[in-house]
Structure formats: C-alpha cells, structure tokens
Amino acid sequence: MRTLPPMSTLRAFEATARTGSITRAAEELCRTHGAVSRQLRQLQEHAGTTLFDKDGTGVRLNARGQAMYDVVRAVFDQLEQGYGRLLDQARGPSLHVACSATFAMRWLVPHLVDFYRLRPDIRIRLSMTSAREMRTEGADVVIAWDLSAYAEADRRRALYLAPATFGPVCAPAYKTPLRAAVRIAHDFTSSAWDQWQRLSGKSIAHGGELTFPHTHLCIEAALAGAGVALVEQRLIHKELRDGQLVAPHGFVRFAGGLMAVPAARELPRDMDVFIGWLRGTLGAEGEEGGS
Question: Domain 7-87, what architecture?
Fold first, then answer.
C-alpha cells in the first residue's frame, strides 16, 4: 500500500506552487479559492509540516515546500509525457518532430497540409524550441541547420534535407550602407554572421548590434527598420515576395545545410516517408528561390 496524500491535494499544491497564487491555481483547476485552500491545508496536515509561508496577501514556498515542489513537478512532467505518448498511440501513427519555433511557424506548419494530403494516416506532433535548447527531448527527430553543439554521435546520424541559404535582409527604407548598418543577430547562433562574412567576402559590424533569442524576433526587428538581419531564405519568402524586406547582397549557401537528426539509430515507423517529403518540398522551394 502506497503512503501518498490524495491526488487532488497534490494537484492543488503543484498548481499553486507553479503559478505562485491560490487564486490562479483555483482558476486553472476550475475550483473555488476556498476549495484549493482546503486542499493545501489537507496536504500540509497529511505531511505534518507547512509548505508555504504567508507573503503579503499571498503565499510562497518555504524550503520544505520547494523541495516537495521539485519532486512533484518532476513526477507530473513525467506523468504528462507518458500520458501524451498513450494518447498518441491511441490516435494512431504519429511522429514527434522538434524544430525551432520560427521554422515551425513560418515553414513547417503552413506546409503540413500538403503532407496530410499525402499521408492523412500520420500525425505530426511538434515541439518548438530555441536553438540553444534544441535537443531530441523525447522527439523522434530534430530539424536544425547548426549542429555544432550536438554530440558527435548525433552529427553522424544526421540526415541531409536541403541546402540552407542565408542572406542579410532589411526593410526597403533602411538605406544605411552595409559597413555602418546595425547588425541584428540571434543570441545562440551568432556564428551565422561569421559564416556569411567568410563565404560572401563582405562585412557588417560597425553600426552596433541587436540580439534576440528567436529568429522570428530578428525578422520583426528588420521589418521595423531596426537594422539588418541574417535569415534563411525560406523563412522570409513572403516578405521578400511582397517587398516588405529586401536582400541587397543576395543569399549564400551555408556548409552542411538543413539536417534531420533522428533520436535513435533505428528510425521510427513512417519516418522515411516524412523525411522524403521534407527533402522533396524543401528542395523544390530551393530551386524556385534560386538557392
């Protein structure tokens, strides 16, 4: 027999600790403030110790509460992931794909309708992460272009998808010469500018630098006229077509290209179908774009 408090008290505790508020926890759990307070009190009585201290009109975790939260959060995360896998299995074949938020929003999701027409029996489950956090994280495959931070074993497993072509882009009204322009850089892939300068033989660094944690934010800054952003051509196809952004120095092909990194040596069922579709679709767009 397990010695555990009622699950409802743990849910109330986890929500309150995570949100930092009994009121917000109650809203999330669709309970009243009084009901959540009673569950917290019940948990503390069961444990024989306090887990929260009063903090003005609210509460905050004490040392024992923080230790308890670390355990409960890890268990809830594991339970949520396990339940998610169960749902995936119940719904039928699926592939868990991890990629940057910008690639997901600007390329993958808009194109998934074509994949589903081809294979309506396969569901794609997406995890969107920043370049810094790009890891398998339970995914079947990760899509990325910069594998410099990956383990050697991961790089050996990587499958080539398509060329990656980058170029400096800016708003048409941004007339600053290249040598004096403000450079807009990604916080975690700053090597992109170094690679572009080496391949193009041009330089841009003397007008200052702005950095952002997501490529999408770099694009938005360029659209606002804040400077020049270095972006993969496919991610700004619409802005280039509509004249919202211009690429006065063109695009150059980077080493390596866009890659798919499987989580294991043995590919999951139907992975070859998805990889083949990615290669065909990305490659066709690259030919149309002159990359």
Answer: Orthogonal Bundle (1.10)
